Amino acid sequence: MSLKPVIIVAENLPIGLKANFAAVLGMSLGQLRPDLVGADTPTQDGIALAGITTVALPILGAPTADLPALFDAAAGLPLRLAYMHAAFEARDYADYTARISAAPLAGHAPQAIMLAGTRKTVDRICGRLPLLR
Questions:
Q1: CATH class, range 4-126
Q2: Could you tell me where the DSSP H helices lie in the chain?
Q3: Distance CA 61, CA 6 (A)
Q4: Pairing of strands 4-10, 59-62
Q5: How far apart are CA 15 and CA 133, in angstroms?
Q6: What average pLDDT does range 23-38 have in this prediction?
Q7: Which of 51, 74, 101, 123 has the fewest CB atoms within 10 Å distance of its CB?
Q8: What is the pTM of this model?
C-alpha cells in the first residue's frame, strides 16, 4: 500500500506555531515510519546530508472547530496523530502526559493533526482543504 500522509493545522494559529506543530508531527511520523525517510546522500565533495522524506507531506489548513471531526474521521487509518492544546500548555513531556491522561479524548482540543492512509481514503477525509498559506 502506498501511504499518503498529510498534516492539518488550525488556520487561526500564528505562523510560528503552525510551523512548530507541523514539525512536531513530522518528527513523530519519521519515528513511527522510518521507511519514509531516505538514505543519507553525499554531496560531490563528500559531505553527507541526512536523508529527508521520500513522500510528499502537504500541510493543509482547517478551522480549529473542524479538527476534532477530521481526527475522528481518520480513526480507521493506519496512522493518526494529534498535537493537542495540552502539549502547548505543558512545561515538559511528563506534564504533557499527565494532562493527556487526565481527560478523555473528547476533552482535548487538537491544534494540528497528521493522518496517513491510502490516497483515496485520505482525499475523502481532507481533499477539500487548502494548502497552508
A1: alpha beta
A2: 15-32, 67-73, 85-89, 93-101, 119-126
A3: 11
A4: parallel
A5: 9
A6: 95
A7: 101
A8: 0.93
